[in-house]
Design brief:
- It contains 15 helices and 17 strands.
- The protein has helices at 2-21, 29-37, 41-45, 61-73, 89-98, 115-122, 137-140, 143-155, 169-172, 268-283, 288-296, 323-333, 383-392, 406-415, 426-442, and strands spanning 49-56, 79-81, 103-109, 126-129, 161-165, 181-186, 211-217, 220-224, 236-244, 247-254, 257-263, 306-310, 313-317, 340-345, 373-379, 400-402, 419-424.
- Strands 2-3-1-4-5-6-9-10-11 form a nine-stranded mixed β-sheet, with helices on both faces. The chain has a six-stranded mixed β-sheet with strand order 12-13-17-14-15-16.
- The radius of gyration is 22 Å and the shape is globular.
- 45% of the residues are buried.
Length: 444
Amino acid sequence: MKLRFYLSILIGRLIYFIMNLFSLNATTFPGKVAYYICPSFLINMRRYFKKVIFITGTNGKTTTTNLIYQILKRTNSKVLANLEGANLRSGIITAFLKNPSSYDFGVFEVDEGIFPYVFRELKPDFIVITNFFRDQLDRYGEIDKTVNAIGNVLKDYDKTVLILNADDPFVARFSRLSNKKYFYGINIKLKEEKEEIRESIYCPFCGQKLQYEYFNYAQMGKYSCSCGFRNPPYDFYITSAKYENNKWIFEVKGENMSIDLSFNYPGIYNLYNALAGFALAKTLGIQTDIIKEGIENFSFKLGRWEAYSYKGYNKILILVKNPAGYNQVLDSIIQDSEEKILLLILNDNIADGRDISWIWDVDFEMLCNDHHIKKIICSGKRGEELLLRLKYAEFPLEKLELINDISKSLKLSIHTPQKVYILPTYTALFYSRKFLKRSIKDGN
């Protein structure tokens, strides 16, 4: 088997370098080939890492993975991570193929749907679980099925330390596992409650409706049940937070510690991402001043508020993929008092999820009162459905435009002398990035 493993590395690396030579996307295919040659690749790969860290959940995985990676690099540790969101088995293997060597840490974003399989092969030392929302129902079915599958595999291996979002009832289910656990959350109400799709309002143990003192983001907030289920006690928690001057200013407390931090990414969901990274870093024993530097100097692109400038106007690229995340993005956009255009791109390729019914759970109605929005362009393979959804939201028809061709819609957005927010689903993200970079570089 070792011969197969070394052969798979050799061939996988060759494919990786050839694909890079021709500027092809090489984030997964080399790993697919290596896995085909050696199905036990990850089992063999495990011995190259002193510690393995998984980040899983629905939203926030890629940002949190990159944040943890950047904090660990500040400790002069040798770290490998799949930083570009390629979170299936093939993406993890490809990350290793780039530089097969020994590492202090392997930091891997893992898709929640394949988590049980990769877990058994890599046996992580630490796992960060961010949240659970509906995401590509045609792939994974209902949330309960995914959460239960993760819980079952964790139950059989209690050596892994868990870093859990206490404010999400789905994640808090794992509080009854025997693993060592650390919980993080936001211990204040950050926004006024409004009608919003909530993924989990019933107790996972007795089935009664959960009672909420407040919501902060989708189903995340302060909840309790008469059976005793409630937010687990926090180990790390935010006690104050304010978004001003394009960044979060917040205070984090824990046992015998308190620190003021800032984070340069909008949205309450990004506050949770920063806190998840902080919680893991403290659990690893990293010095607080190093963690602070890592969080406050964090920089990440890949469609997470990725800004491009063309002739003095910002074009901001933001990945959207499910109602909870989409709502957070829209909520942040309407806080922007500048005049702007929105380009919404919806595809239904396999990687996006064939079922696009989730767009009806996005709160597009919130856009109707933002008079700074001058136009919304709907684009992509399912642009018509976006247009229909916005019509039902009663967004002014004279401000709506349908351009199915993504290239044409992007070109129009780039050349429009106005700020533009570009919100693509997964497969449109990579095309949009490439198109934006090339067009801005060439000036056309």
